[in-house]
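From the methods appendix. Each design record in this collection lists the tokenized structure first, followed by the designed amino acid sequence. Records were kept in a plain field format so they could be parsed without special tools. The example shown here is representative of the layout used throughout.

RECORD:
FOLD TOKENS (404 positions):
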């Protein structure tokens, strides 16, 4: 509509191939199509992100000090290059399928006859959870993912899963006659996304049928060595048996593990069920449960698990306190939290774990990997449930803004 003679951009667009969006090429083509010309200026640039970070920083002092120090070692281009290099990693992703439902409702008051609060239903949303959410995060960065999981034949949500799972993910699903696909239904007040209570549709006594276990073990025995790495997202709902643990532990070329504690398995689903790992990513309560230790220093507990599982790389996520990272090569590194606003904590750990796992496999410095994980987590807590995944371009932009 405007048909400009001149379209002017700052010198940060001098190398068009560095534009994260790639839109500069389309803009130039659009301007030329109406007889205009693209001009790149040569003045000093004043990044709005840099000005905001310097003079109107919303981060606590600890985070500001960390970012200033980190910027002296790494540029946003360094980190984006590291993330770009995980694209070709061949991954086998294993874990439990979960369907997350959010039922939005508002309180109406106390029931006259019972000692309960009555609520009015408004609407609902359904999301992919568990290993499916981890897979969707990962598929934004890696092109070669095979997902191995178990689905119930009763109320299985198969069509929904196939529709919303990233099409780049190869599916290797097994089906059990004896269980429904796991559903976790949360009742949520939409005003502040306050979760009122949760109903889980699962069989917490379920044991994987022998026939299915043998089929999975046969597949793993035949194909596990063909993958660069195995990523296990174990939510403790019956898929990962002792026999499957043995095969994975013995044969995976590189093994990344996240073992989650939840209301259905509290104290029973621990990282120590595995025999070895190359990368472990769990939260602080899960570490303390695994060590049966409520009070000792985290560093001591991390060294304990590192020795027990012969694991060289461990990251412990700590919610609003950031993360603490350990490797035999780099020692301990603490990364403060970057998120200043939290919309929904559900799935932040899955995003952290799934995106950092191939970065560890690529032997990136631990401090850089921890930074990537905290950045991914900061983006994820702004997403309701798993309404969407952490997108590559969004993460690249956020990293660029953090380091200006």
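DESIGN:
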């Amino acid at each position: 509509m405007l048909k400009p003679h001149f379209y002017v951009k700052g010198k940060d667009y001098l190398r068009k191939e560095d534009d994260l969006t790639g839109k500069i090429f389309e803009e130039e083509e659009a301007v030329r199509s109406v007889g205009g010309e693209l001009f790149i200026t040569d003045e000093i640039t004043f990044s709005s992100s840099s000005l905001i970070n310097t003079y109107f920083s919303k981060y606590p002092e600890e985070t500001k000090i960390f970012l200033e120090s980190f910027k002296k070692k790494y540029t946003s281009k360094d980190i984006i290059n590291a993330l770009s290099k995980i694209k070709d990693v061949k991954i086998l992703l294993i874990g439990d399928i979960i369907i997350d439902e959010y039922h939005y409702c508002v309180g109406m008051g106390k029931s006259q006859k019972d000692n309960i609060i009555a609520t009015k239903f408004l609407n609902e949303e359904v999301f992919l959870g568990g290993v499916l959410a981890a897979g969707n995060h990962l598929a934004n960065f890696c092109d070669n993912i095979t997902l191995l999981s178990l689905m119930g034949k009763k109320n299985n949500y198969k069509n929904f899963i196939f529709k919303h799972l990233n099409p780049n993910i190869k599916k290797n699903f097994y089906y059990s006659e004896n269980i429904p696909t796991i559903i976790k239904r949360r009742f949520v007040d939409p005003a502040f996304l306050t979760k009122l209570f949760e109903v889980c549709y699962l069989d917490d006594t379920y044991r994987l049928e022998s026939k299915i276990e043998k089929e999975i073990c046969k597949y793993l025995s035949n194909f596990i060595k063909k993958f660069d790495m195995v990523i296990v997202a174990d939510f403790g709902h019956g898929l990962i048996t002792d026999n499957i643990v043995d095969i994975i532990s013995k044969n995976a070329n590189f093994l990344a593990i996240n073992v989650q504690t939840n209301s259905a398995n509290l104290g029973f689903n621990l990282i120590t069920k595995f025999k070895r790992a190359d990368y472990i990513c769990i939260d602080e309560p899960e570490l303390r449960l695994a060590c049966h230790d409520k009070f000792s220093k985290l560093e001591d507990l991390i060294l304990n698990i590192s020795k027990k599982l012969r694991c060289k790389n461990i990251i412990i996520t700590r919610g609003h306190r950031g993360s603490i990272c350990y490797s035999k090569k780099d020692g301990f590194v603490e990364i403060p939290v970057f998120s200043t606003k939290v919309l929904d904590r559900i799935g932040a750990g899955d995003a952290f774990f799934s995106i950092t796992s191939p970065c560890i496999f690529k032997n990136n410095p631990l401090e850089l990997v921890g930074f990537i994980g905290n950045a991914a987590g900061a983006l994820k807590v702004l997403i309701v449930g798993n309404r969407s995944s952490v997108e590559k371009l969004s993460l690249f932009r956020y990293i660029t803004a953090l380091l200006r």
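APPENDIX NOTE: The longest strand covers residues 97-110.
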